[in-house]
Amino acid sequence: MRVVDELGKHLRGTYEMLRGSSIDVEPYAPGRHGPLITFDGLDGHREVNRYWVDAPFAFISVSYDPSAHEHHYHVVEPELTEWEVTLLDNLVDDLRDTLIHRREVGEGNTEAVIKSELETLLEEYGIVVDMREFYNLFYYLDRRFRGYERLDPIMRDPHVEDISCDGYGRPLFVYHTEHADIKTNVVFDREELDDFVVRLAQRSGRSISIGEPITNAMLPDGSRSELALGEEVTPHGSAFTIRKYSEEPMTPVTLVEKGTFSLRNMAYLWLAIENNKSLIFAGGTASGKTTSMNAVSMFIPPRSKVLTIEDTQEIRLHHENWLSAVTRENVGGDSSVDMYDLLRSALRHRPEYIIVGEVRGEEAMTLFQAMNTGHTTYSTMHADSIQTVINRLENDPINVPRAMIQSLDVLTVQRISHIAGERVRRTRTVSEIIGVDQRSGDLDYQSVFDWEPSEDRFRDTISQSHILKEIQEEQGWSRAQLRSELQNRMRVLRYAQERQVRDYQAFTALINEYYTSPDAVLDRVEDDLDESVPAAIE
Fold this sequence. Notes:
Elements: H1 2-19, H2 30-33, E1 46-54, E2 58-65, E3 70-76, H3 82-101, H4 110-125, H5 131-145, H6 152-156, E4 160-165, E5 171-176, E6 180-187, H7 190-203, E7 214-218, E8 224-228, E9 239-243, H8 252-257, H9 263-274, E10 279-283, H10 289-296, E11 306-310, E12 322-326, H11 339-348, E13 353-356, H12 363-372, E14 376-382, H13 386-394, H14 402-405, E15 410-419, E16 422-436, E17 443-452, E18 457-460, H15 466-475, H16 479-498, H17 504-516, H18 518-528
Parallel strand pairs: 3-6, 10-14, 10-15, 11-12, 11-13, 13-14
Antiparallel strand pairs: 1-2, 2-3, 4-5, 4-9, 5-6, 7-8, 8-9, 15-16, 16-17, 17-18
Helix pairs in contact: 3-4, 3-5, 4-5, 9-16, 11-12, 16-18, 17-18
Protein backbone atom coordinates (compact mmCIF):
# COMPACT_ATOMS: atom_id res chain seq x y z
CA MET A 1 0.00 0.00 0.00
CA ARG A 2 2.88 2.34 0.83
CA VAL A 3 4.36 1.76 -2.66
CA VAL A 4 1.00 2.54 -4.27
CA ASP A 5 0.72 5.75 -2.27
CA GLU A 6 4.22 6.82 -3.28
CA LEU A 7 3.46 6.02 -6.96
CA GLY A 8 0.27 8.06 -6.75
CA LYS A 9 2.19 10.97 -5.31
CA HIS A 10 4.72 10.79 -8.15
CA LEU A 11 1.95 10.81 -10.76
CA ARG A 12 0.26 13.74 -9.08
CA GLY A 13 3.63 15.50 -8.92
CA THR A 14 4.18 15.03 -12.66
CA TYR A 15 0.75 16.48 -13.40
CA GLU A 16 1.19 19.36 -10.98
CA MET A 17 4.65 20.17 -12.35
CA LEU A 18 3.13 20.86 -15.76
CA ARG A 19 0.75 23.43 -14.36
CA GLY A 20 2.44 24.44 -11.09
CA SER A 21 0.99 23.99 -7.64
CA SER A 22 -0.11 26.15 -4.75
CA ILE A 23 0.55 25.41 -1.07
CA ASP A 24 -1.36 27.12 1.68
CA VAL A 25 1.10 26.92 4.58
CA GLU A 26 -0.56 26.99 8.01
CA PRO A 27 0.95 27.09 11.49
CA TYR A 28 1.50 23.51 12.58
CA ALA A 29 -1.29 22.19 14.83
CA PRO A 30 -0.93 18.59 16.10
CA GLY A 31 -4.66 18.14 16.54
CA ARG A 32 -5.41 19.11 12.96
CA HIS A 33 -2.33 17.94 11.08
CA GLY A 34 -1.39 14.87 13.10
CA PRO A 35 1.79 14.13 15.08
CA LEU A 36 5.13 14.57 13.33
CA ILE A 37 6.76 11.74 15.26
CA THR A 38 5.65 8.58 17.00
CA PHE A 39 7.75 6.39 19.25
CA ASP A 40 6.62 3.51 21.46
CA GLY A 41 9.97 2.87 23.11
CA LEU A 42 12.68 0.29 22.52
CA ASP A 43 11.85 -3.40 22.84
CA GLY A 44 13.10 -4.87 26.08
CA HIS A 45 13.95 -1.44 27.50
CA ARG A 46 12.32 0.45 30.37
CA GLU A 47 11.96 4.14 29.55
CA VAL A 48 13.15 6.27 32.47
CA ASN A 49 12.92 9.74 30.94
CA ARG A 50 11.42 11.48 27.92
CA TYR A 51 11.66 15.18 27.13
CA TRP A 52 11.43 17.53 24.16
CA VAL A 53 14.53 19.28 22.88
CA ASP A 54 12.91 20.85 19.81
CA ALA A 55 9.15 20.55 20.09
CA PRO A 56 7.27 19.36 18.09
CA PHE A 57 10.10 17.93 15.98
CA ALA A 58 12.51 16.08 18.25
CA PHE A 59 12.60 14.57 21.72
CA ILE A 60 14.97 12.41 23.75
CA SER A 61 14.07 9.03 25.24
CA VAL A 62 16.41 7.68 27.92
CA SER A 63 15.79 4.00 28.63
CA TYR A 64 17.36 1.23 30.68
CA ASP A 65 18.33 -2.11 29.17
CA PRO A 66 18.21 -4.69 31.98
CA SER A 67 19.93 -7.36 29.87
CA ALA A 68 22.99 -5.16 29.26
CA HIS A 69 22.68 -3.28 32.57
CA GLU A 70 23.06 0.08 30.86
CA HIS A 71 21.12 3.19 29.88
CA HIS A 72 20.50 4.18 26.27
CA TYR A 73 20.05 7.67 24.83
CA HIS A 74 17.64 7.64 21.90
CA VAL A 75 17.09 10.65 19.63
CA VAL A 76 13.58 10.61 18.13
CA GLU A 77 12.92 12.68 15.00
CA PRO A 78 10.39 12.62 12.13
CA GLU A 79 10.76 9.65 9.79
CA LEU A 80 11.03 10.34 6.07
CA THR A 81 9.99 8.04 3.24
CA GLU A 82 12.48 7.22 0.48
CA TRP A 83 10.67 9.66 -1.78
CA GLU A 84 10.90 12.41 0.85
CA VAL A 85 14.63 11.72 1.31
CA THR A 86 15.21 12.15 -2.42
CA LEU A 87 13.11 15.31 -2.42
CA LEU A 88 15.04 16.63 0.56
CA ASP A 89 18.37 16.18 -1.25
CA ASN A 90 17.07 18.30 -4.15
CA LEU A 91 15.73 20.93 -1.76
CA VAL A 92 19.08 21.17 0.04
CA ASP A 93 20.94 21.77 -3.23
CA ASP A 94 18.49 24.39 -4.47
CA LEU A 95 18.09 26.10 -1.11
CA ARG A 96 21.84 26.44 -0.49
CA ASP A 97 22.36 28.96 -3.28
CA THR A 98 19.26 30.89 -2.28
CA LEU A 99 20.35 31.27 1.32
CA ILE A 100 23.74 32.60 0.26
CA HIS A 101 22.14 35.47 -1.59
CA ARG A 102 19.15 36.30 0.61
CA ARG A 103 19.94 39.44 2.63
CA GLU A 104 17.64 38.41 5.49
CA VAL A 105 19.90 35.45 6.26
CA GLY A 106 22.24 36.37 9.07
CA GLU A 107 19.84 39.01 10.36
CA GLY A 108 17.94 36.61 12.61
CA ASN A 109 15.38 35.72 9.91
CA THR A 110 16.91 32.51 8.57
CA GLU A 111 14.10 30.31 9.88
CA ALA A 112 11.44 32.40 8.14
CA VAL A 113 13.49 32.46 4.94
CA ILE A 114 13.84 28.66 4.93
CA LYS A 115 10.11 28.22 5.41
CA SER A 116 9.31 30.73 2.67
CA GLU A 117 11.80 29.24 0.21
CA LEU A 118 10.59 25.71 0.92
CA GLU A 119 7.07 26.76 0.00
CA THR A 120 8.32 28.44 -3.19
CA LEU A 121 10.45 25.48 -4.27
CA LEU A 122 7.67 22.96 -3.71
CA GLU A 123 5.34 25.07 -5.84
CA GLU A 124 8.00 25.34 -8.54
CA TYR A 125 8.49 21.57 -8.43
CA GLY A 126 4.73 21.18 -8.72
CA ILE A 127 4.66 18.90 -5.67
CA VAL A 128 1.63 18.61 -3.43
CA VAL A 129 2.31 17.99 0.28
CA ASP A 130 0.16 18.12 3.36
CA MET A 131 1.18 20.17 6.42
CA ARG A 132 2.71 17.21 8.22
CA GLU A 133 4.97 16.49 5.25
CA PHE A 134 5.76 20.18 4.82
CA TYR A 135 6.92 20.55 8.42
CA ASN A 136 8.88 17.30 8.28
CA LEU A 137 10.82 18.70 5.32
CA PHE A 138 11.17 22.08 7.00
CA TYR A 139 12.65 20.47 10.12
CA TYR A 140 15.39 18.70 8.22
CA LEU A 141 16.21 21.79 6.14
CA ASP A 142 16.31 23.96 9.25
CA ARG A 143 18.47 21.36 11.00
CA ARG A 144 20.83 21.35 8.02
CA PHE A 145 21.27 25.08 7.51
CA ARG A 146 20.74 26.57 10.98
CA GLY A 147 21.56 23.68 13.27
CA TYR A 148 24.11 20.90 13.60
CA GLU A 149 22.49 18.36 11.26
CA ARG A 150 22.22 14.91 12.90
CA LEU A 151 23.80 16.30 16.03
CA ASP A 152 21.25 19.09 16.41
CA PRO A 153 18.88 17.45 18.95
CA ILE A 154 21.82 16.51 21.16
CA MET A 155 23.28 20.01 20.93
CA ARG A 156 19.90 21.35 22.07
CA ASP A 157 19.74 19.00 25.07
CA PRO A 158 20.51 21.01 28.25
CA HIS A 159 21.31 17.74 30.09
CA VAL A 160 24.26 16.93 27.80
CA GLU A 161 27.68 18.34 28.63
CA ASP A 162 29.96 16.44 26.24
CA ILE A 163 29.51 14.63 22.93
CA SER A 164 32.03 12.06 21.62
CA CYS A 165 32.28 10.41 18.22
CA ASP A 166 35.03 7.77 18.00
CA GLY A 167 34.95 6.84 14.33
CA TYR A 168 33.01 5.42 11.40
CA GLY A 169 29.98 3.30 12.25
CA ARG A 170 30.44 3.78 15.99
CA PRO A 171 27.59 5.10 18.17
CA LEU A 172 28.05 8.54 19.65
CA PHE A 173 28.41 8.82 23.42
CA VAL A 174 27.24 11.74 25.53
CA TYR A 175 27.88 12.78 29.09
CA HIS A 176 24.41 13.26 30.58
CA THR A 177 24.00 15.20 33.83
CA GLU A 178 21.67 12.52 35.24
CA HIS A 179 23.06 9.33 33.69
CA ALA A 180 26.80 10.10 33.18
CA ASP A 181 28.36 8.49 30.06
CA ILE A 182 25.66 6.97 27.90
CA LYS A 183 25.48 5.47 24.39
CA THR A 184 23.22 7.05 21.77
CA ASN A 185 21.47 5.79 18.64
CA VAL A 186 23.30 8.33 16.45
CA VAL A 187 25.87 6.73 14.10
CA PHE A 188 27.75 8.28 11.16
CA ASP A 189 28.95 6.33 8.14
CA ARG A 190 32.31 7.12 6.50
CA GLU A 191 31.28 9.73 3.94
CA GLU A 192 28.76 11.39 6.23
CA LEU A 193 31.22 11.70 9.12
CA ASP A 194 34.04 13.07 6.96
CA ASP A 195 31.71 15.71 5.49
CA PHE A 196 30.34 16.58 8.91
CA VAL A 197 33.79 17.11 10.46
CA VAL A 198 34.83 19.35 7.55
CA ARG A 199 31.66 21.42 7.87
CA LEU A 200 32.12 21.76 11.65
CA ALA A 201 35.58 23.17 11.05
CA GLN A 202 34.32 25.52 8.34
CA ARG A 203 31.51 26.82 10.55
CA SER A 204 34.15 27.67 13.14
CA GLY A 205 36.33 29.54 10.65
CA ARG A 206 38.96 26.77 10.69
CA SER A 207 40.29 24.45 8.00
CA ILE A 208 40.94 20.73 8.25
CA SER A 209 42.33 18.38 5.62
CA ILE A 210 44.21 15.13 5.19
CA GLY A 211 47.40 17.20 5.23
CA GLU A 212 46.40 18.88 8.50
CA PRO A 213 43.96 16.36 10.00
CA ILE A 214 43.61 17.82 13.50
CA THR A 215 42.17 21.12 14.67
CA ASN A 216 40.34 22.56 17.64
CA ALA A 217 37.62 25.10 17.17
CA MET A 218 34.97 27.14 18.90
CA LEU A 219 31.54 26.48 17.39
CA PRO A 220 29.13 29.35 16.72
CA ASP A 221 27.26 28.69 19.98
CA GLY A 222 30.50 28.89 21.98
CA SER A 223 31.01 25.13 22.42
CA ARG A 224 34.56 23.81 22.15
CA SER A 225 35.38 21.06 19.68
CA GLU A 226 38.38 18.88 18.91
CA LEU A 227 38.24 17.50 15.37
CA ALA A 228 40.18 14.76 13.56
CA LEU A 229 39.74 13.93 9.86
CA GLY A 230 40.31 10.58 8.20
CA GLU A 231 42.37 7.66 9.45
CA GLU A 232 45.84 9.23 9.53
CA VAL A 233 45.85 9.98 13.25
CA THR A 234 42.62 8.26 14.33
CA PRO A 235 42.68 4.72 12.85
CA HIS A 236 38.94 4.18 13.38
CA GLY A 237 38.14 7.15 11.17
CA SER A 238 37.16 10.79 11.59
CA ALA A 239 36.34 11.72 15.16
CA PHE A 240 35.24 14.66 17.23
CA THR A 241 34.59 15.67 20.82
CA ILE A 242 32.40 18.64 21.70
CA ARG A 243 32.27 20.25 25.11
CA LYS A 244 29.03 22.14 25.10
CA TYR A 245 28.82 25.79 26.04
CA SER A 246 26.28 26.91 28.59
CA GLU A 247 24.68 30.22 27.70
CA GLU A 248 23.81 30.75 31.36
CA PRO A 249 26.91 30.48 33.55
CA MET A 250 26.45 28.97 36.99
CA THR A 251 26.32 31.36 39.91
CA PRO A 252 27.94 30.83 43.32
CA VAL A 253 24.48 29.95 44.65
CA THR A 254 24.13 27.15 42.09
CA LEU A 255 27.53 25.73 43.08
CA VAL A 256 26.52 25.76 46.75
CA GLU A 257 23.25 23.99 45.90
CA LYS A 258 25.14 21.36 43.90
CA GLY A 259 27.51 20.80 46.82
CA THR A 260 30.65 21.92 44.97
CA PHE A 261 31.26 24.46 47.73
CA SER A 262 29.78 25.00 51.18
CA LEU A 263 28.03 28.23 52.13
CA ARG A 264 30.89 29.23 54.43
CA ASN A 265 33.43 28.36 51.75
CA MET A 266 31.71 30.58 49.21
CA ALA A 267 31.46 33.50 51.66
CA TYR A 268 35.18 33.11 52.33
CA LEU A 269 35.93 33.32 48.58
CA TRP A 270 33.67 36.37 48.28
CA LEU A 271 35.61 38.18 50.97
CA ALA A 272 38.93 37.15 49.39
CA ILE A 273 37.94 38.37 45.93
CA GLU A 274 36.50 41.60 47.25
CA ASN A 275 39.84 42.25 48.96
CA ASN A 276 42.00 41.55 45.90
CA LYS A 277 43.35 38.10 46.76
CA SER A 278 44.63 36.05 43.80
CA LEU A 279 43.36 32.52 43.19
CA ILE A 280 44.09 29.45 41.07
CA PHE A 281 41.44 26.78 40.46
CA ALA A 282 43.02 23.39 39.82
CA GLY A 283 41.53 20.01 38.96
CA GLY A 284 41.24 17.34 36.32
CA THR A 285 39.43 17.49 32.99
CA ALA A 286 35.73 18.46 33.35
CA SER A 287 36.08 18.91 37.12
CA GLY A 288 34.44 22.34 36.92
CA LYS A 289 37.49 24.61 37.24
CA THR A 290 36.40 27.22 34.71
CA THR A 291 32.79 27.06 35.91
CA SER A 292 33.89 27.84 39.47
CA MET A 293 36.24 30.62 38.38
CA ASN A 294 33.49 32.21 36.31
CA ALA A 295 31.03 31.95 39.21
CA VAL A 296 33.21 33.52 41.91
CA SER A 297 34.24 36.28 39.49
CA MET A 298 30.70 37.59 39.97
CA PHE A 299 31.96 38.84 43.36
CA ILE A 300 34.30 41.34 41.69
CA PRO A 301 33.23 44.84 42.85
CA PRO A 302 31.30 46.89 40.26
CA ARG A 303 33.25 49.32 38.06
CA SER A 304 36.55 47.52 38.74
CA LYS A 305 38.40 47.06 35.46
CA VAL A 306 38.38 43.36 34.52
CA LEU A 307 40.32 41.77 31.66
CA THR A 308 39.84 38.13 30.63
CA ILE A 309 42.21 36.12 28.42
CA GLU A 310 41.18 32.77 26.92
CA ASP A 311 41.88 30.33 24.10
CA THR A 312 38.13 29.90 23.56
CA GLN A 313 35.68 32.29 25.13
CA GLU A 314 34.00 30.65 28.12
CA ILE A 315 34.01 33.36 30.80
CA ARG A 316 30.78 35.35 30.96
CA LEU A 317 30.38 38.28 33.32
CA HIS A 318 27.68 40.85 33.87
CA HIS A 319 30.22 43.58 34.43
CA GLU A 320 30.29 47.00 32.78
CA ASN A 321 34.07 47.54 32.82
CA TRP A 322 35.10 44.21 31.26
CA LEU A 323 37.48 43.69 28.34
CA SER A 324 37.53 40.20 26.83
CA ALA A 325 40.53 38.95 24.80
CA VAL A 326 40.80 35.67 22.86
CA THR A 327 43.89 34.10 21.28
CA ARG A 328 44.26 33.70 17.51
CA GLU A 329 46.07 30.94 15.66
CA ASN A 330 48.13 31.47 12.52
CA VAL A 331 45.49 31.12 9.79
CA GLY A 332 45.81 32.24 6.19
CA GLY A 333 49.17 33.92 6.74
CA ASP A 334 48.00 36.09 9.64
CA SER A 335 50.31 36.14 12.64
CA SER A 336 49.20 34.20 15.71
CA VAL A 337 48.32 35.89 19.00
CA ASP A 338 48.85 33.63 22.00
CA MET A 339 48.09 34.02 25.71
CA TYR A 340 51.55 35.39 26.39
CA ASP A 341 50.99 38.18 23.84
CA LEU A 342 47.57 38.99 25.25
CA LEU A 343 48.78 38.98 28.84
CA ARG A 344 51.64 41.38 28.07
CA SER A 345 49.17 43.65 26.30
CA ALA A 346 46.71 43.33 29.18
CA LEU A 347 49.11 44.91 31.64
CA ARG A 348 49.15 48.08 29.52
CA HIS A 349 45.38 48.35 29.97
CA ARG A 350 45.96 48.72 33.72
CA PRO A 351 43.29 46.20 34.81
CA GLU A 352 42.54 45.61 38.48
CA TYR A 353 41.52 41.99 37.90
CA ILE A 354 43.06 39.67 35.29
CA ILE A 355 41.35 36.34 34.55
CA VAL A 356 43.28 33.82 32.44
CA GLY A 357 41.43 30.75 31.11
CA GLU A 358 44.28 28.32 31.81
CA VAL A 359 48.01 28.68 32.36
CA ARG A 360 50.27 26.11 30.68
CA GLY A 361 53.52 27.80 29.69
CA GLU A 362 55.40 31.07 29.56
CA GLU A 363 52.27 33.13 30.15
CA ALA A 364 52.32 31.88 33.75
CA MET A 365 55.52 33.84 34.43
CA THR A 366 53.87 37.03 33.22
CA LEU A 367 50.80 36.21 35.29
CA PHE A 368 52.87 35.91 38.46
CA GLN A 369 54.76 39.05 37.58
CA ALA A 370 51.37 40.77 37.42
CA MET A 371 50.54 39.37 40.87
CA ASN A 372 53.83 40.68 42.24
CA THR A 373 53.09 44.16 40.89
CA GLY A 374 49.72 44.37 42.61
CA HIS A 375 47.25 42.99 40.07
CA THR A 376 44.61 40.53 41.25
CA THR A 377 44.64 37.45 39.04
CA TYR A 378 42.57 34.28 38.63
CA SER A 379 43.37 31.27 36.48
CA THR A 380 42.92 27.50 36.16
CA MET A 381 45.40 24.61 35.94
CA HIS A 382 45.25 20.89 35.31
CA ALA A 383 46.42 19.31 38.58
CA ASP A 384 44.95 16.94 41.16
CA SER A 385 46.55 18.29 44.35
CA ILE A 386 48.10 21.40 45.87
CA GLN A 387 51.57 19.89 45.64
CA THR A 388 51.03 19.01 41.97
CA VAL A 389 50.10 22.63 41.24
CA ILE A 390 53.28 23.83 42.94
CA ASN A 391 55.40 21.25 41.10
CA ARG A 392 53.93 22.26 37.74
CA LEU A 393 54.50 25.96 38.46
CA GLU A 394 58.13 25.44 39.49
CA ASN A 395 59.19 23.09 36.68
CA ASP A 396 59.25 22.99 32.86
CA PRO A 397 57.63 24.42 30.86
CA ILE A 398 56.30 27.03 33.33
CA ASN A 399 59.31 27.64 35.61
CA VAL A 400 57.95 30.25 38.01
CA PRO A 401 60.49 30.99 40.79
CA ARG A 402 59.37 29.86 44.22
CA ALA A 403 59.73 33.37 45.58
CA MET A 404 57.17 34.61 43.03
CA ILE A 405 54.64 31.88 43.83
CA GLN A 406 54.35 33.49 47.29
CA SER A 407 52.21 36.20 45.71
CA LEU A 408 49.44 33.63 45.07
CA ASP A 409 46.94 33.72 47.91
CA VAL A 410 44.47 30.85 47.49
CA LEU A 411 44.56 27.48 45.70
CA THR A 412 41.49 25.28 45.25
CA VAL A 413 41.49 21.72 43.90
CA GLN A 414 38.32 20.25 42.41
CA ARG A 415 37.55 16.68 41.46
CA ILE A 416 34.81 14.48 40.04
CA SER A 417 33.57 11.94 42.59
CA HIS A 418 30.76 9.41 42.91
CA ILE A 419 28.25 9.59 45.74
CA ALA A 420 25.44 7.03 45.94
CA GLY A 421 26.08 6.15 42.30
CA GLU A 422 25.82 9.77 41.18
CA ARG A 423 28.70 11.62 39.55
CA VAL A 424 29.32 14.92 41.37
CA ARG A 425 31.86 17.74 41.41
CA ARG A 426 33.40 18.68 44.74
CA THR A 427 36.08 21.08 45.91
CA ARG A 428 38.56 18.70 47.44
CA THR A 429 40.53 21.38 49.27
CA VAL A 430 40.96 25.14 49.58
CA SER A 431 44.44 26.10 50.72
CA GLU A 432 46.28 29.33 51.40
CA ILE A 433 49.86 30.04 50.34
CA ILE A 434 51.69 31.37 53.41
CA GLY A 435 55.21 31.83 52.06
CA VAL A 436 58.59 30.14 51.84
CA ASP A 437 59.66 28.29 54.94
CA GLN A 438 62.90 29.91 56.08
CA ARG A 439 64.32 26.66 57.41
CA SER A 440 63.48 24.16 54.66
CA GLY A 441 63.10 26.54 51.73
CA ASP A 442 59.83 24.80 50.77
CA LEU A 443 56.67 26.64 49.91
CA ASP A 444 54.46 26.69 52.99
CA TYR A 445 50.68 26.36 52.67
CA GLN A 446 47.74 25.48 54.89
CA SER A 447 44.35 23.99 54.19
CA VAL A 448 41.30 25.96 55.35
CA PHE A 449 38.57 23.79 53.77
CA ASP A 450 38.64 20.04 53.14
CA TRP A 451 35.94 17.78 51.72
CA GLU A 452 35.18 14.55 53.57
CA PRO A 453 34.00 11.99 50.94
CA SER A 454 32.56 9.54 53.47
CA GLU A 455 30.18 12.18 54.85
CA ASP A 456 29.96 14.42 51.79
CA ARG A 457 30.57 17.49 53.88
CA PHE A 458 33.23 20.16 54.29
CA ARG A 459 35.41 20.55 57.34
CA ASP A 460 37.28 23.80 57.86
CA THR A 461 39.87 25.54 59.96
CA ILE A 462 38.70 28.98 58.88
CA SER A 463 39.38 30.36 62.36
CA GLN A 464 43.09 29.93 61.58
CA SER A 465 42.87 31.46 58.10
CA HIS A 466 45.96 33.45 57.19
CA ILE A 467 44.07 35.28 54.41
CA LEU A 468 41.21 36.35 56.70
CA LYS A 469 43.73 37.64 59.22
CA GLU A 470 45.38 39.67 56.43
CA ILE A 471 42.01 41.10 55.38
CA GLN A 472 41.20 41.94 59.00
CA GLU A 473 44.46 43.86 59.38
CA GLU A 474 44.16 45.61 55.99
CA GLN A 475 40.61 46.78 56.78
CA GLY A 476 41.37 47.68 60.39
CA TRP A 477 38.63 45.39 61.68
CA SER A 478 38.38 43.74 65.02
CA ARG A 479 37.94 39.97 65.16
CA ALA A 480 34.24 40.53 65.85
CA GLN A 481 33.93 42.77 62.79
CA LEU A 482 35.61 40.16 60.60
CA ARG A 483 33.20 37.53 61.88
CA SER A 484 30.26 39.88 61.24
CA GLU A 485 31.40 40.67 57.66
CA LEU A 486 31.71 36.98 56.84
CA GLN A 487 28.35 36.24 58.44
CA ASN A 488 26.67 39.02 56.43
CA ARG A 489 27.90 37.53 53.16
CA MET A 490 26.65 34.11 54.20
CA ARG A 491 23.23 35.64 54.87
CA VAL A 492 23.12 37.27 51.43
CA LEU A 493 24.11 33.99 49.76
CA ARG A 494 21.50 32.04 51.72
CA TYR A 495 18.90 34.66 50.80
CA ALA A 496 19.82 34.30 47.10
CA GLN A 497 19.56 30.53 47.49
CA GLU A 498 16.12 30.67 49.12
CA ARG A 499 14.85 33.16 46.54
CA GLN A 500 16.34 31.01 43.73
CA VAL A 501 18.45 33.84 42.30
CA ARG A 502 20.23 31.60 39.78
CA ASP A 503 20.37 33.94 36.78
CA TYR A 504 23.90 35.31 36.64
CA GLN A 505 22.76 38.83 35.77
CA ALA A 506 20.26 38.93 38.63
CA PHE A 507 22.83 37.49 41.02
CA THR A 508 25.47 40.03 40.00
CA ALA A 509 22.91 42.82 40.44
CA LEU A 510 22.27 41.61 44.01
CA ILE A 511 26.00 41.55 44.80
CA ASN A 512 26.47 45.02 43.31
CA GLU A 513 23.54 46.29 45.36
CA TYR A 514 25.19 44.90 48.47
CA TYR A 515 28.40 46.76 47.65
CA THR A 516 26.44 49.99 47.18
CA SER A 517 23.92 49.71 50.04
CA PRO A 518 24.85 46.84 52.36
CA ASP A 519 22.52 47.91 55.17
CA ALA A 520 19.50 48.07 52.86
CA VAL A 521 20.23 44.61 51.45
CA LEU A 522 20.82 43.12 54.91
CA ASP A 523 17.54 44.60 56.19
CA ARG A 524 15.70 42.93 53.31
CA VAL A 525 17.56 39.70 53.89
CA GLU A 526 16.73 39.61 57.59
CA ASP A 527 13.04 40.26 56.87
CA ASP A 528 12.80 37.51 54.23
CA LEU A 529 15.29 34.85 55.36
CA ASP A 530 13.46 31.65 56.26
CA GLU A 531 16.41 29.58 57.50
CA SER A 532 19.10 30.32 60.04
CA VAL A 533 22.65 30.68 58.79
CA PRO A 534 25.47 28.70 60.44
CA ALA A 535 28.15 30.58 62.32
CA ALA A 536 30.75 32.19 60.07
CA ILE A 537 33.69 31.23 62.29
CA GLU A 538 33.23 28.48 64.81
